[in-house]
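Fold this sequence, please.
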Amino acid sequence: MKPIIAIVGRPNVGKSTLFNRLVGRRKAMVDDMPGVTRDRNYAEVKRFDVPFILVDTGGFEPETSDKLLQQMREQSRFAMDEADLILFVMDARDGLTPADTEVVEMLRRVNKPVFYIINKVDGDRQESFAGDFYALGIDQIHMVSAEHNRGVGDLMDEVLAAIPKGMVDEVEEEITRIAVVGRPNVGKSTLVNRLLGFERVVANPTAGTTRDAVDTRFMVNKKPYVLIDTAGIRRKGKTVEKVEKYSVMDALRSIERADVVLIVLSAEEGVTEQDSKIAGYAYEAGRGCIFVVNKWDTLTKDNASMGRFVEEIRRSFKYLPFAPILFVSAATGQRTGKIIPEVDLVMEQYCKRVSTSDLNKVFTQAIDENHAPLDQGRRVKFFFATQVGTKPPSFVIFTNRPEGIYFSYERYIMNRFREAFGFNGTPLKLIFRGRDKKES
């Protein structure tokens, strides 16, 4: 499981600049991914020795006219509860503010690593401005300039060393891990209880993450499963009221350790922007996905109701055309018995391997029937394809011009693989690689 690092602090102290600096590119990271048009306030960072999930809490603040301090307090408290490590950013140019002091007092009571950062220290002159911050009585303050990359490398060396042990490189068991994610009040807790209640042999809570969370094991037809870190199986403790936008952060943890993600939608409310954010992260994380439309029993329906809802889902989640859709009522149990069999089917495809010979028969036929568009007037040649991994199924395709493959053609190849080998419910990953520099 990847640790979550949250950046907190007042608006305009440079949180987003630091976010972009650590991610290694500008915040509009997925503009080149057709079908995914959502705001991004989190990113998977792989450019350091330890991969982690980075969250910019400034982007999570609700659009409201409430007092700035109240907004910041809510963000900071949520980050304290949910993150594994916290980067608290202050502004050297503004100096120490009462709001900074209040958050520092809260952070002193947090039982997890906290790094206190003074940003916008662009040179020696700005370092002299930072003297006020030592009045906080903090043992170590990191002075950086996120904009100019000053001091960021030294900061990250210490941050990575402080990541809680045991969070990285965990040995995974051969067991299907299911995450139940979705907005608040879509019925996740009821669905979790329903899944744990039928044909259950064992529901033993075992230690999960470093937070107050548990994994719940259960069995169906003598086959083991784990429900991961969801509402309804989390130990009760100190909580904060969560604005709906914050539900993304809840989903991050569940998705990171899951094989199959149940994306729960509300039949009463339809598809919302927040649903798109949560589903989009499941897609980007490369997890098997199933849409579960809950509260289906509460609607007044006609013969076309289900078809209309399917169309709405397919239109709203164009990047998940492969994900099965189930209509259920967790409250009454209607059709919930179909969920685990569907999970099994998705898991089978998620772990599926295809022989190189079978793969290349389909691949050769596909490129013969539909040639790739020219790249800068030059023909794109393909040599062969091979599967290099599972969870999700991943394929390397060797070509003379790997940079010249249009997304539409990549999607065409992907769809041909799906049709031929039945990859349902799972994303596929295609990697185009040059075989020989002389060929390009």
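The first helix runs from residue 15 to 23. The chain has a mean pLDDT of 80.
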